[in-house]
Structure formats: C-alpha cells, structure tokens
Design goal:
Helix content: 10-25%
Structural class: alpha+beta
Number of domains: 1
Strand order of the largest sheet: 1-2-3
Number of helices: 1
Distance between the termini: 19 Å
Shape: elongated
Radius of gyration: 16 Å
Order of helices and strands: HEEE
Strand content: 15-25%
C-alpha cells in the first residue's frame, strides 16, 4: 500500500513504483535444486528460495 495514492494519476503512481498495469499473470517456479537470492536496494542479499522452498 502507498499512503496518499488515492487520486494520483497513473504517471504519478508509476513514479512511486506502483504497478498500474491492467494485465496480471501468475506463474509457478521452483524445483528441488533451485535456490533464489534477491538483492535489496542497499545491496544486502536476501534468500528467497532454498531447494525450491520459499524462505520469505
């Protein structure tokens, strides 16, 4: 949720990083040998998946 987002234009929302797309697609990922690591804005690494199982 973005505080104060009500009434903002699509362009203003996009500047805040809000997805305003009319299209949404879900997909499944994972396998017993898959590890996924994300990187935060400050450069810290965060484990997302270990051996196909979500950590977060």
């Amino acid at each position: 949720c973005v505080q104060g987002a009500e009434g903002l234009s699509d362009g203003e929302l996009a500047e805040l990083g809000v997805n305003v797309s009319m299209v949404h697609t879900d997909f499944m990922i994972g396998s017993p040998d898959m590890d996924v690591t994300g990187t935060t804005r400050d450069g810290r690494e965060v484990r997302i998946m270990t051996r196909g199982r979500f950590e977060v």
